[in-house]
C-alpha cells in the first residue's frame, strides 16, 4: 500500500474515500491498564507494545481510521512514545488514516511546534490528522490549521465533547448571544468553505449528547467531518446518531475504543467486532444521507 504523500490530496477527500470504501468507523487505540490486564498483559512497555501491534495488525488493513490515544503512551515516557511512533507509521503503511488523539492547544507560537510534531512529514509522529483544543481561542490554532491545509492533513477541533463537564465551558453564552461551541463550529465552517467533497477541519461532537445539543443553538453544517466519540463504553449507540446529528449525520465519523478493544486479544474477534460496528454504522449513515435535508 502506498502511503498518501503530503501535499497530495486534502485530508477531507482522503477521509471521505476511506469511509466509503472501508466503512465509517474510527477505532481508538486506548491501552488502558484495565484492558492490558484483561488481555493478560503487564502494565508495562512490553504489554503496551503487544497490545498496540495486535490492534494495528488486526485493524489497520480494514478500518478507515485508527486513533491512538497519546496519553496511554506518554505514561511510559520516551519508550511509550517510541511505541506510538511505530504504531502511527505502521498503521499508515497498512492503509489506515491515523488520527493522533493528543488534544493539543496552546498559544500560537507554541502551537506551531505542535504542528511540527504531528503534521510535518519529517516528524516521527507525522499523522494524517490531530485532535486539537480551541479553548485558548480558535485563532491560537492558526499555525496548525495552516499546516494542515498546506500538507493535506486534517484537524479535529473539540467543539462539544462527550463528557458531562464539557457543557460548563462549551455551552457558555457569549455577549453576542451565541454559545462558545456554536462559535467554534462557525469558525470550523469558515475553514471548510468551498471544500469538496468534505473539508479537512473536523469537529469533535460527542455521540452521548442527545437532546442537550439542540438546546445549545449549534449548527453542525460545517462541511467537515464530525468525530463522534462516546459509542460503546460511554453509552451511546449507532442508533442515537440521527437524533444527535440530524441532517449532518452523513458527515459523522463514529469513534469507538473500548467497545471494540474489549474483544481482544484475538485478532479475529477484533476484526469481526470492527466489521460488525462498521456495517451497522454504514447503514445508519446511508439512511440519514438519503433523508430530506441531508445535504449539509
Ligand atoms: O477527541 C476524542 O477522541 C474524544 C473527545 C470526546 O469528547 N470524548 C472522548 O471520549 N474522546 C476520546 O475518545 C476515546 C473514547 O474511548 P471509549 O469511551 O473507550 O470509546 C478516548 O480516547 C477519549 O479521550
UniProtKB/TrEMBL annotation:
Annotated ranges, domain Orotidine 5'-phosphate decarboxylase: 24-273
CDD domains: OMP_decarboxylase_like
Entry-linked Pfam families: OMPdecase (PF00215)
Gene Ontology molecular functions: orotidine-5'-phosphate decarboxylase activity
Positions annotated as active site in the UniProt record: 103
SUPFAM superfamilies with a match to the protein in the record: Ribulose-phoshate binding barrel
Membrane-crossing segments per the record: none
SMART domains reported for this sequence: OMPdecase
Enzyme Commission code: 4.1.1.23
Pathway per the UniProt entry: Pyrimidine metabolism; UMP biosynthesis via de novo pathway; UMP from orotate: step 2/2
Keyword tags: Decarboxylase, Lyase, Pyrimidine biosynthesis
Source organism superkingdom: Bacteria
Annotated InterPro entries: Aldolase_TIM (IPR013785), OMPdecase_AS (IPR018089), OMPdecase_type-2 (IPR011995), OMPdeCOase_dom (IPR001754), RibuloseP-bd_barrel (IPR011060)
Reaction catalyzed: orotidine 5'-phosphate + H(+) = UMP + CO2
Family classification: Belongs to the OMP decarboxylase family. Type 2 subfamily.
PANTHER family linked to this entry: OROTIDINE 5'-PHOSPHATE DECARBOXYLASE (PTHR43375:SF1)
Protein name: Orotidine 5'-phosphate decarboxylase
Amino acid at each position: 500500500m502506498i502511503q498518501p504523500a503530503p501535499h497530495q490530496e486534502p485530508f477531507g477527500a482522503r477521509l471521505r474515500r476511506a469511509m466509503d470504501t472501508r466503512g465509517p468507523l474510527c477505532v481508538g487505540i486506548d491501552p488502558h491498564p484495565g484492558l492490558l490486564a484483561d488481555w493478560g498483559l503487564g502494565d508495562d512497555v512490553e504489554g503496551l507494545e503487544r497490545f498496540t501491534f495486535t490492534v494495528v495488525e488486526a485493524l489497520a488493513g480494514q478500518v478507515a481510521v485508527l486513533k491512538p490515544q497519546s496519553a496511554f503512551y506518554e505514561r511510559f515516557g520516551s519508550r511509550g512514545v517510541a511505541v506510538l511512533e511505530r504504531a502511527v507509521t505502521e498503521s499508515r503503511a497498512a492503509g489506515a488514516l491515523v488520527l493522533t488523539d493528543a488534544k493539543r492547544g496552546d498559544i500560537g507560537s507554541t502551537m506551531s511546534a505542535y504542528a511540527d510534531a504531528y503534521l510535518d512529514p519529517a516528524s516521527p509522529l507525522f499523522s494524517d490528522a490531530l485532535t486539537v483544543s480551541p479553548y485558548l481561542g480558535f485563532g491560537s490554532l492558526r499555525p496548525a490549521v495552516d499546516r494542515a491545509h498546506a500538507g493535506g492533513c486534517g484537524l479535529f477541533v473539540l467543539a462539544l465533547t462527550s463528557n458531562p463537564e464539557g457543557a460548563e465551558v462549551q455551552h457558555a453564552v457569549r455577549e453576542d448571544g451565541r454559545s462558545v461551541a456554536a462559535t467554534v463550529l462557525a469558525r470550523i465552517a469558515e475553514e471548510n468553505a468551498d471544500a469538496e467533497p468534505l473539508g479537512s477541519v473536523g469537529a469533535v461532537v460527542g455521540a452521548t449528547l442527545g437532546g442537550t445539543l439542540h438546546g445549545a443553538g449549534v449548527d453542525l453544517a460545517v462541511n467537515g467531518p464530525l468525530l463522534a466519540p462516546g459509542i460503546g463504553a460511554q453509552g451511546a449507540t449507532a442508533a442515537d446518531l440521527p437524533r444527535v446529528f440530524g441532517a449532518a449525520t452523513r458527515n459523522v465519523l463514529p469513534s469507538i475504543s473500548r467497545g471494540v478493544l474489549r474483544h481482544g486479544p484475538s485478532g479475529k474477534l477484533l476484526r469481526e467486532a470492527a466489521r460488525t460496528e462498521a456495517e451497522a454504522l454504514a447503514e445508519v449513515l446511508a439512511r440519514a444521507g438519503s433523508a430530506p435535508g441531508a445535504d449539509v
